[in-house]
Amino acid sequence: MKIATAGFTCVDNYANLDNRHYPAGNGFDALVNLAKRGVECAVVSAVGPDKYGEEMFEVLKKYNMDSSHLHVLPGETSFMVMEMTENNDRVHVKNIQGVMADWELTRDDIEFLKGFDFVHTEFSRVLYPYLAELQEAGCQIIFDLSTSYERRPETKELLKNIDYAFMSYPQRDERVKELMKEYQALGPKMVIATFGEEGSLCYDGKEFYSGEITPAKEVVNTVGAGDSFCAGFMYGIMNGYSIPECLKEGADLSAEVVAMFDPY
User: Fold this and answer.
1) How far is CA 126 from the centre of its chain?
2) What string of DSSP letters covers 122-140?
3) What is the C-alpha separation between 10 and 198, in angstroms, rounded?
4) CA–CA separation, 60 vs 57, rounded Å?
5) How far apart are CA 126 and CA 141, in angstroms?
6) Three state DSSP letters for 138-200
7) Is the sign of the CA dihedral 263, 49, 14, 44 positive or negative?
8) Would you report the helix, strand and coil content of the chain in percent, each value rounded to 5?
9) Other Cβ atoms within 10 Å of 174 Cβ, number
10) Are the CB atoms for 178 and 203 separated by under 8 Å?
11) How deeply is 41 buried, as exposed, middle or buried, from its count of CB atoms within 10 A (0-12, 13-18, 19+)?
């Protein structure tokens, strides 16, 4: 199985930790965790001709990931200013979009993506016009709805061309089940919701499957918890695991990631 991500990448920089930083992005974080497990991965995005762009290439090389469609464009690599809180959570202070502001996929990028079994993306918009085309070519679309799905007017239209929809929700309640049913009926094979310390839930159109958290040895940084859960879940899907086993894979990998500073 092969997977690519197309969308937002950046550098997360912690202003209150002596500017400690690492390359990041929803799909980037998820795919590095898959590459560490031997999955063939590629990143389709853009960086600037600066040290942060070079560091992104270095991470991809380290984990044997395809960087042939990581474009170097005039400008600066997108930069996310972060701060770490006392409970090891993070606060987004400022986003400097850099080359991400105007980047668009090329026809060559789309043809490249058609060679993958799975394509991961998010609300960066670059893949919106091509989701149906990629599905028709045989790609299964993974979409990170994050926390902003109800604020996005395009969400319901996008769901028509999504196979696996991941969402973060504040708590387990009956409303989330109704929302998951509504979203799944629009197109996805599965809608998966995570609730932080309250575990996870998956709906496949027939049944709800509940997952518990895997306790972390320690919590160093919660960045990447959702992306690593997605990676673990999809690793299970790629290997024919049952849905409960996929939820367990996601929880296990998330527990590993929050115990380290970098999200992979």
Assistant:
1) 15
2) -TTSTTGGGHHHHHHTTPE
3) 29
4) 5
5) 14
6) CCEEEEEEECCHHHCCCHHHHHHHCCEEEEECCCCCHHHHHHHHHHHHCCCCEEEEECHHHCE
7) negative
8) 35, 25, 40
9) 7
10) no
11) buried
- Structure pTM? 0.93
Cβ atoms of residues 95 and 71 within 8 Å: no
**CA 194/CA 149 separation, integer angstroms:** 14
Question: Is-contact 118 140, C-beta < 8 A?
Answer: yes
pLDDT digits (tens, 9 = 90+) for 147-185: 989 999 999 999 999 999 999 999 999 999 999 999 999
Whole-number pLDDT of residue 88: 58
Residue found under tokens 């929700």: 169
- Bridge-partner residues for 4, per DSSP? 42, 119
- Give the span between the Cα atoms of 105 and 6, in whole angstroms: 9
Residue 244 backbone dihedrals phi, psi, to 5 degrees: -60, -35
**Domain chopping of the chain, boundaries:** 2-257
Within 8 A by CB and 6+ apart from 177, the residues are 201, 203, 208
Residue 163 in contact with residue 141, Cβ under 8 Å?
Answer: yes
Instruction: Tell which CATH architecture fits domain 2-257.
Output: 3-Layer(aba) Sandwich (3.40)
Q: What is the DSSP letter of 75?
A: S
**Residue 247: predicted pLDDT:** 98
Place of tokens 């993958």: 116
- 76: its two tokens: 């600066």
Burial letters for 126-165: b for 16+ Cβ neighbours within 10 Å, e otherwise? Answer: bbeebbeebbeeebbbbbbbeeebeeeeebeebbebbbbb
| 81-131 pLDDT, tens digit each | 877 776 656 666 678 889 999 999 999 999 999 999 999 999 999 999 999
